[in-house]
Structure formats: C-alpha cells, structure tokens
Amino acid sequence: MSVGHTAAGGMSADFAGTLAILLLALPLAGCLVNALFGRRLGRRFVNVVGPGVVLAAFVVAVVVLVNVIGASEEGKSTTVQLWQFIDLGKGNLQTSVATTFDPLSALMIMVITGVGFLIHVYSVGYMEHDESPHRFFSYMNLFIFSMLLLVLAADFFILVIGWGLVALSSYLLIGYWYQRPSAVAAARKAFITQVIGDVALVIAAFMILTRLRTFSLSLPQIFADAGASFDHGGPYITGICVLLAIAAFAKSAQFPLHTWLPDAMEGPTPVSALIHAATMVTAGVYLIARFHTLFDLAPFAQGVVACVGIGTAFMAGVIALSQIDIKRVIAYSTMSQIGLMIFAVGIGAYSAGMFHFATHAVFKALLFMAAGNVIHALHDEQDIRLMGGLAPRLKITNFCFLVGSFALAGIPIFAGFFSKEELLGFGSVHGPLPPTLWVVGVAINVLTGVYAFRLYFTVFHGEARTARVDAAHEAPRSMLIPVELLTLGSIVVGLVMLPALPGIAGANTIGDFLDPVFKAGGAQLIDEPGRSVAWATLLVGTAASFIGVGLAYRWCYQHRPDAQVVASRLPRPLTQLSLHKFYFDEIYDAMLVRPTRALARSMRRVVEPNVMDGWIRGIAATFRELSLDFRFVQTGIVRDYAALMLGASAVFVVYMVVVLAK
Amino acid sequence: MNSIPWLTLVLVVPLGTVVLLQLVPHNARTLIKAVTIVGTLATAAIVAGLVVAFTQNPAPAQVALPQGGTHVSPITFQFEEQREWISQIGASYHLGLDGVSAWLLALDAGVFLLGALVVSARSTDRLKFYCGLLLLSETATAGVLLSVDLLLFYLFWEAMLIPLYFLLSNYGDSNRGRATLKFVIYTAAGSLLMLIAIIYLYFQSPPPPGSSHASFDLTALMLNPGPAQGVVHIPVHIGSAINADIPLLTPIQFAFIAFFLAFAIKVPLVPFHTWLPDSYTSCPPAALVFFAGIVSKLGAFGFIRYGLTLFPGPVHDYRWILEALAILSIVYGALMALAQVDIKRIVAYASVSHLGFVVLGIFALNANGINGAVIQMVNHGIIIASLFLIVGMIEQRTGTRDRHQLAGLEKRMPWLYAFFLVVTLAGLGMPGMNTFVGEFTIMLGAFQASWILAVLAGTGVILACWYMLRLHQGLMHEPPKPATEGVRDIGTGERLVLVPLVGLMVLIGVFPRPIGDVARSNVSQYVTVANGAQPVAQAPQQ
C-alpha cells in the first residue's frame, strides 16, 4: 500500500502509512457523519462523535510521538506515499499524497489533537443551547482534519490543500452564526485574506518546481535539492521565501495581512480558542519552520520575517491596550505572541519558536475558554466596561484566568516564561541589528504584562458595573474541566524546559527533540547565546514582565478599575492609533476595496455597454448607415438613374485615361 | 470491438431517439421525458465504455487518406472510423477520439443526460419539441468533438446552431428576441469566416501524389508544409504620385484569425462575449445545463484541435495577444461578476472568467497548461451546470433574480445551502476541489510560459473568491427578506440530481489522476505539433 523511504531505526512504511491514514480519516469521518446524519441522530450522538474522533486521533498522535522519540537519530523522519495524485508525465506535474512523521509534525499533531480535544469537550457545554450542534461539530472536525493534513503533508501540493482547507473551516466557523451580518462579513474578509496568501503560496510552489533540478513538489526532494538548485542569497530564492512569508503572514495574521483576525472573533468562543489562538494562526510559524532549508538560503527574507514578526508583536500589543471587547483583547494578544514566534523563526531560532507555539497553544486556549466562561455567565456580554467584580462569583474561572494571564505575561515558572525568554535570548544575539530587536522584545514584555493584567483586573476586580454580574454563576462541568486541565498545563508544560535555564543542567529538552529536523541535510543551527548573555537577557526580560504587571496593578487595580485608564495614560497620538487599530481597516477600504468596487461598477455601467458591446454594434451600425446612405439613389425616377449613370461613366472614363495613359 | 462503429453510435443514438420520439403522442409527457432520458443514458453508457476502453499510451497508427495512401497522423486517434463521403473533393466521414475529446465527450454525454433529467415534464410547453432539440444538440456537439475531417467538423459546428436557436427563441424569457438575434449573428459571423478559411486551407494544400485534389482531412492538412509565406499586400496605385503596397498579413495568418474568431466567440473571450450574458440570462435553466455546460467548451476544444495543429506559426506569432485576451477575460469577467445584480448574470460572467483560465492554459503551449485546460474544461462544465441549476431553483421559489431581494436562504433551505456551498467552493478554486487541480495546473503552465501570466491569473483567483462568496453569502446568510420568507427546501428529486454533480467536484478534487492519464499522451502530441515547425511524420506513401 504505502511506499516510503525510512532509515534504519525508524517506523516502518506500512506502520507509518496506517497511522497517517488513521489520523486523517478519524476527524474526516467525524465531519462527514455529523454533517450527513448528525441532525437525524440528535445532539447526544453529535456530542459523542465530535469530541470522540478527536480523542481517538489524539491517541494515534501519542503513538506517533512515542515512535518518533524512540527512533534512532537518522530514523526520526518517516515519509510515506499514500497514492499518486496526478501524473502528467515526466517533466510535468507529478504529485502524490504523501505524509511525513518527524519531531516537528509530531509536536504539531500532539498540540492539534490534544488541545483540540479539550476544546471539543468544552464546546459540548458552550454550544448546549445552539440549535445545530451537528453543523458546529462537523466544521470543527473538518478543521482538525485540515490542520492535520497541513502538518503531515510531505508534498507541496497536498500542503496547499491542507492550507486552503484550514482557511475554509475557519471561514465556516467565523460565519457560524450566519444571521449576523457582522459575522458574515468577518468570515468573508478572513477567507479573502487567506486566498491572497494561497496565491502567494502557489506561486512560490511554481518557482520552486520550475527551478528545482528534479522538477518535483515532494518536500523531502525540495529540501534535498535546494542547496544545489538555488544560489545562496540570490534574488530567486529570496523571492520564493518572501512569497512563502506572505502566505505565512496571511495565515498567522501578521502585518500587513492581519486585519481579519480581530474580526474573526465573531465566531463562537471555542472556535476562537481552537482556530484563532491555538492552531490555525500558528500555521505560518510552522510553514517557515518546515521550509527552514529554503529560508536558511535567503538571509534577506529571514530579516524581513524577523522584522515583520517583532513589528506586528509590538503593534498588536499597543492595540490590545485600548480594546474593550474581551475577546478582541485576547485576539490582539494572540497576534502579538505569534509575532514573537514569527520573529523567532525569522532569526533561525526554529526550536524556540516552535516551543513558544506549544506553550502559547495551551495558555491561550485557556484564556479564551476562561473568557468564554465569563461571556457565558454574563449571557453573551463581551464589553469589559460592563464587567468587573467577577472574582468572587466565578471563583474557578477567576483562578484559571489568572494563571493564564501569568503564563501570557511571562512570569517565572508559568509556561510562557520559559518559551518567551528563550526566544528573546536568541534575539539578543541573532537577527538583523542584534540587540535592537531584542530591545523591542523587552518593550513587548512590558506591554504584554500591562494589557494582560488590565484585562484581568478590569473583568474580575473592582466594582460590579452591571446587574448581570451579580446574577453570574459558574459554567457547567464540561466547560470547567478542560479549562482546569489547561490551567494545569500552563503551569507544568514549561517545566520540561527547566533544565535549559542557563546554569542548571544545560540540557535543552525541546531543542534536543526538534533540532534533528532543523539540522537535516547538514544545516547549521544558530548558536545559543553565551551564558552571561543568557542570564542578562533572562533577568532583563523577566524584570520587564514584572514591570508590566506592576503597572497594570497600579493603574487598573489600585488607582481606578476602568477599561480606558491605560489608554488615557499613553501619549495622545499613540492612544489614537491604538483605539483605531492603526487605521488599517480604513486604509485598506479606501485603497483596495472601494477602488475595486468602483472599477467593477464602471465596467458594468460604461465599458460593457459602450466599449464591449459598442464595437460590435458599431459594425452593425456601419452596415446600416451604409445602406441608408445609398438608399437615396433608389428614387424611382428614371431621370435620376440616367444622371447617375452619366456621372459614373464620366468618372470611369477619367480613371481609364489617367491610369491607362501611362 | 473494432467491428462495431462505436463513435457513429454516439451520434446515431440521440438521432434515433428523436425518430422514436415522433411515435410518442404529444400529451404523453412522462413517456416523452422517459424516452429522452433513455436515449441520453444509452449515449452516456457508450461514452463511458469508450473512456474506460481508451488506451492510455497508444502507438501511432497508420491512417488511410481518403484519396488513397496512408500516413502517420501527428495526433493519434482511437476508435477511428473512415468512410467515403464526398470523395470527389476529398471529404470523408472520418471520426476519431483522442485524450482531449474523450473527456469532453464524457462531459457532453453527462450534461445532456442531466439536461434530460432536469427538464420539467409538467411545465415545459411543447415538451416533445424541446426534447427533440435537446437530442439534436447532443448529436451536433458530439459530432464536433468526434470529426477529424474539416468539412464534417464544420457541418456539425453549424448544425449545433440550429437546435440552440430554436431553444432560445421558443423557450427563452421575455428578452429572448434580442438574445437570440445577438447569439445567432455573433456565432454565424464567426462560422462564416471559418468556412472561408477552411476552403482556403483546402486549396493551398498540395494534392498528394496520384490524386487530383487535396483533402479536408485534419490529419492530412496538419502534415502539409504550410502555405506560401508571402505577405498579402493591398496595392494602392493612383496615378504616378501614389504607388504603394500596404503590407497586411500572410494568408495563413488571415486563416488563423478566421478560425480564432469562430472559436473566440464560442468560448467566449472578451471582447467577443457580449452575446453570452443576454443568452444565458434568457435561456431556461434546464437548457442552460447543456448550453453553458458544453457549447462554450467546444470553442476551447477548437483552439486545441484546430488552432494548435493547423496554425502553429500564427499561434506563436500572436501568442502574446492570445494570452493577453485570456487574462483580460479572467479579470474583466471577474470584475463584471462582482458588479452584477442579477444572480444569473453573476454566474454568466463567472463563466467568462473561468473560461479565460482554460484559454490561458491552451496558449501557454506546454503540457501542463493544456492538460490543465482539459481538466478545467470538464470541471467548468460540471460547475456551471450546477450553478445554473441552483440559481434556477432559487428563482423558481422566490420569483426573483435580484440579489438585493434575496437573503437568509440557509435557514429555509439547508439542503440547498449544503449543495450550494460545495459548488461555490469548487467555483472559487478551493484547494481540495476540482477547480483547484485545473487552475493549479493551468497556472503552472502559464508560469512556465511567463511568470507575469501566473501572477495576473492569481488576481483572478482572488477576485473569484470575492464574487463567489458575495453571491453565496448574499443569498444564503443574514436574516431573510420578504421574497425569501416561507420558501421550501429542494425536494428529493432535485437533491438526487445535485448529488452526482457535487460528488464529481469532490472526486476530481481528490482523485484527478484518470483525467491526466487519459489526456496526457495526446496532449504531448498537441504540444509537439504546436511547438515544432513541422510535425515529425512520414511522408504519405503510395
């Protein structure tokens, strides 16, 4: 069945093929069963099938992880070809459905199915009063399938399919409440932005395919041939990497393709947790990490990626300071954290970036679901100005949200601390203009502390600002258990990296696990910062996080628990930019959307009737005119005909004389 | 197998069904519909058998020339049939199937079967006449795909116009007069020029040894060394003062332009498209299934079968113009689709934009582009038929095609919503759906020709996403409006019609291999012929 190349000490091709098919088939089957029979079989059935298939996929993912960890150094990567997709002959398009298991994809599928399962369980409670749970779980399972296809793909063509299907499920879920015009518009905006990224990705595929010596879209083949096919630092490979980066920016909501993510919060909260925080939006980080072989050849593109990442992280942090919708604050924080990951993979710190992806998936899903509990308790209220004083009423949610905020701010022992500080440590010695971007990173740490705890204090402390708050009660168990598990995760996941703290054991757990992927083919990893530099950056970064939290405590807790208090303390231009989200929506509307619409309208009103239809009517009219012009000669009067004959003869004679007389 | 003239059967079965229909009384409506379905089903069965039996990498075969002798055709046809027809002038009844026409024939048989299934036996006037026209169209379109003789091809090409004319003029909506006139004048003008060019090609080709006259056979005309390369001048002599020759084009370039116009109008390429929105809007949805489903593809097929083989020189001379027109169609069609209010017109312009991709693939002049064009022609037929059916169902239930009056149908029509969603995704080129395979391959071919073409086509993809979502979301989402209150969902029959269509969209999306397997060897022959100065083939033998 499966053809594959495996080294000794790895998984056998058949075994890997079976696992891959199981992983993909389970959520796909869940999607189809829910879509086709869910309505008839009822809510209880759907509530079992929806999360059930994801749990089963998680079990398979664990098997994969165990096998990958157990494999020998050279057997870490197993690629299997499942079936030939299309074959247009040698030298033309030939692609296969093929999958790869390696540490990178193993980490991804663990997070996707693990966090994904908890969010599915949470959704059972959250969507309890929704009228079409079969539709919801069908879309959610489709998303899990798409995401798995994306990260398992060992062929560019299949990767693009996964890439596109992820965008589709995101579109379906953002627009889930389809009777709300704002949700419909948000879904469309997200999808069109994604398609811009898709086109960039497809053109990058063409560029690779036509230049690669072997004319192949197989990813292992591309990575093996890249060094020999592309000039290091040349314009061609830079172009490819910039296109890949554009695709990554669209998916990961990075400048300038970031405006869809805040609007995507129109979707149900579990969707925001799963797709727009934990998994889909990190696919851009994955893409760059997966194509590290190409990015290593294009330092300029890497610099662009690093700058865009850190720039977006800073910008989103500033915007998060003034937003008043609980989910939008978290959405901008997601954008900011993904900016940091993009920065990490941009400077070549791939393992650090992927580790931050993993911890972020845990604590950001936690924050979203805890926010979901708040929204649920307040009957769909999302405006934080109308909250406050929820801590005594939602005790468990309060605790979980606090832990999530600590993890987000990067307070020691919480998950975010380990991943973010490692990432910033690399930033102090690598990337464009080494210490500069790191300084921005430290500033982002301050911002993160401020917006995270501004949100926490405004929602959970101070006076209850509406009567609804008094009536709030804790969410059902199915919504609390996943949140509690993720709270536990936010505390312990980071601890695997405890030995990596400078001066403890010197063993980089995650790095040792992932680095074989990034060392494949003899690639050089970037150096870890020296011990003293590592300590210095760690201390400065952590101090910045504490300062941020302290500022939020002082402004929002002690001083005046008010949502706008932080914004009012910033310089005025910055406040305006923050409130208006740096005016990107307005700029795009004025520069792209409106002109295109106006162009289309003028085509319909002017060009189509006058030019396109005009030239053909012009021909018709010419014939008509000609016949009208000559109609006058048919007067019916013999004298006129005689005169005409005479005239014509005269012209003819003159012509003969002039021409023939030569 | 060889003894049975399968290709002739494909032409004869629909014709025979027309004869059979004459025996059925006018008011036996169910029986009329049943007979039509059986006739189209039988044709579809034969075609399915042909596609399955198609040899994937055939050995080049010796072909007999109508005036004697044999030669090796640069394009290998299968299931060939050759009989005497008008032997005095070298025209023969020569049918053949290649990897490109095989899939189009399958599409042809499919859309006519679908057309027979969706015709409403209860409400269509003069049902027998309608069904007869449907079956005649099937014979004519299949004939266009199967003929290898230029005169025979022209005959079917013109014959196609007649049933379509009667369909439009009898069954169209209130605007049908204008629409029919436009359609007929446009297409007739194109075909007439093509006839002149065919006659020119015939006369300029030298008769083979031992024969007094040339041949209309495509395989023979392809082998000719090509006409005189001299440029046609318009002499302007007025006295001794003005004495100039205005150089125009070579005769073969003129001939190519004539063929080009005929095909470009049929596809249609912008700016030859203005007949299409009027005709499509006026045409009843049941007839649009095959009108939009196959006829436009025949123009694109003509470009491959006749444009590339008979005019490799002019195709290269005008390559940039052809590619530019394809891009213009993609972008202009998409912008027009974005600006329309009538939902049927949105689909009509979407069709223009999609066919721009097909033409772009053909004139990329490489294997990826043309294979992609073949895949995309099949896809487009399936998608456009489904879209017009769905739009028709909505119009039938709400009584309007104005998108401002339509909204919120998802709640009322969950089944229609599900089907429409899949069709929308297929239409906008969603990865994992059939269009993606076609457009990816076409854009790869275009990229190999010039990267700028792929980038420009990419803007068409983004616009397609915009107008398709605008259509889909506008109809389906947000709260219902007065016109959409209380509409009923589609019934079992309608669902059963849509199931195979959306099934094919997904199937081709995940398993497109058979299309490429059948098409690729003939496509590489077309590429060789189009790119080589002269096809490599043996001289005619005595």
Explain what the structure shows.
The complex is a heterodimer of chains A (662) and B (542). Chain A is mainly alpha-helical and 662 residues long. In chain A, 73% of the residues lie in helices and 3% in strands. Chain A is built from 26 helices and three strands. Chain A has helices spanning 13-41, 43-70, 103-126, 133-152, 156-174, 181-211, 219-229, 235-251, 260-263, 269-278, 283-290, 292-296, 299-320, 326-347, 350-377, 395-409, 415-429, 434-460, 467-471, 477-492, 509-519, 531-559, 565-569, 572-579, 584-631, 638-660; strands spanning 3-5, 78-87, 94-101. In chain A, strands 1-2-3 form a three-stranded antiparallel beta sheet. In chain A, strand 2 (78-87) and strand 3 (94-101) form a beta hairpin. In chain A, helix 3 (103-126) packs antiparallel against helix 4 and helix 14 packs antiparallel against helix 15 (350-377). The termini of chain A are far apart. In chain A, 57% of the residues are buried. Chain B is mainly α. Chain B contains 21 helices and six strands. In chain B, the strands form three sheets. A two-stranded antiparallel ribbon of chain B has the order 1-2. In chain B, strands 3-4 form a two-stranded antiparallel sheet. Chain B has a two-stranded antiparallel sheet with strand order 5-6. In chain B, a hairpin with a 4-residue loop joins strand 3 (78-86) and strand 4. Mean pLDDT of chain B is 85; it is low at 533-542. The chains are: A mainly alpha (662), B mainly alpha (542).
Overview features:
heterodimer; A: 662 residues; mainly alpha; three-stranded antiparallel sheet; 26 helices; 3 strands; 73% helix; B: 542 residues; two-stranded antiparallel sheet; two-stranded antiparallel ribbon; 6 strands; disordered C terminus
